[in-house]
Design brief:
Keywords: DNA-binding, Hydrolase, Nuclease, Nucleotidyltransferase, Transferase. By secondary structure, the protein is an alpha/beta fold. The protein is 46% helix and 14% strand. It has two domains: 9-165 and 247-262, 3-Layer(aba) Sandwich (Rossmann fold), CATH 3.40.50; 170-245, 5' to 3' exonuclease, C-terminal subdomain (DNA polymerase, domain 1, Orthogonal Bundle). The protein contains twelve helices and six strands.
């Protein structure tokens, strides 16, 4: 978890998810958002803070039209509130970015990759379980929730060790776990007939799906669940689920930041 004076740590914030729960409070929402940014930066003094916003469209929906299809309509006034939040970022000299066809989660993944590639650490401010795939010991940590305590924040953290301890899969295995079991909140199905217990058992035994296929292709007799995975590979389900579940870490953030700078 971050301490005050973390000069080599980047904060990557999903505005829609964590720091903006009062997005529909009208004029007060942007003020509250700015106050949270001020407190966050004053308390922990990160080297850099970047706030990510969702794009109106997602490449995942083009791949799988049912993606997030069961979610309700956007709250009235949210677009104006998000615009005000971006202006609050600019007023606080905090970078903010939204990239067409990418979600804020993908932006956070790209920021984490850029930070760790240069020897920095990264803290991801989001409660989304998809962040678990990005966590790395001593490098990438998730802040799941911020609670205000007078003029400071207390936080609920998740680390790579927490993922293993709480869910019986590693952070590195999280994508393939989600590929197998699906995600009801994002409305993608996973592999038919593979539930969490079976998925965890397979990943514990083989480590990765690649290892599973490499070993089981040599076997004449396959367990029923392994047959299901071979069928899912053949019909394209696994490839599609991987593209849906994996957060992209190659989002063109630098170009987007330059465009945002030009429109201030």
């Amino acid at each position: 978890m971050p301490n005050k004076g973390y000069s080599e740590t980047w904060f990557a914030i999903d505005a829609n998810n964590l720091l903006f729960p009062d997005v529909c409070m009208g004029d007060k929402s942007a003020k509250n958002f700015a106050a949270r940014l001020q407190t966050l930066n004053r308390q922990w003094e990160p080297e850099r803070t970047i706030v990510a916003f969702d794009s109106s469209e997602s490449f995942r929906r083009k791949l799988f039209p049912e993606y997030k299809a069961k979610r309700g309509a956007k709250p009235e006034g949210i677009d104006d509130a998000l615009k005000a939040a971006k202006e609050a970022c600019w007023d606080e000299c905090v970078d903010c970015v939204a990239v067409p066809e990418f979600e804020a989660d993908d932006v956070l993944a790209t920021i984490a990759a850029a930070a760790t590639a240069t020897g920095r650490r990264c803290v991801l401010f989001s409660s989304d379980k998809d962040m678990r795939q990005l966590l790395r010991a001593g490098k990438v940590t998730q802040c799941r929730k911020l609670n205000r305590d007078r003029d400071r924040f207390t936080a609920e953290w998740m680390t790579a060790d927490d993922v293993k301890r709480n869910f019986d899969v590693t952070a590195e295995q999280w994508v393939e776990f989600q590929m197998l079991v699906g995600d009801a909140s994002d409305n993608y199905p996973g592999v038919d007939g593979i539930g969490p217990k079976t998925a965890k058992s397979l990943l514990a035994k083989y480590g990765t799906l690649g290892n599973l296929f490499a070993k089981e292709e040599r076997e004449q007799i396959r367990p029923r669940e392994v047959k299901k995975l071979f069928a899912a590979r053949e019909n394209g389900t696994l490839d599609l689920m991987r593209k849906i579940a994996t957060l992209r870490d190659d989002v063109p953030i630098s170009e987007a930041l330059l465009e945002m700078e030009a429109t201030r």
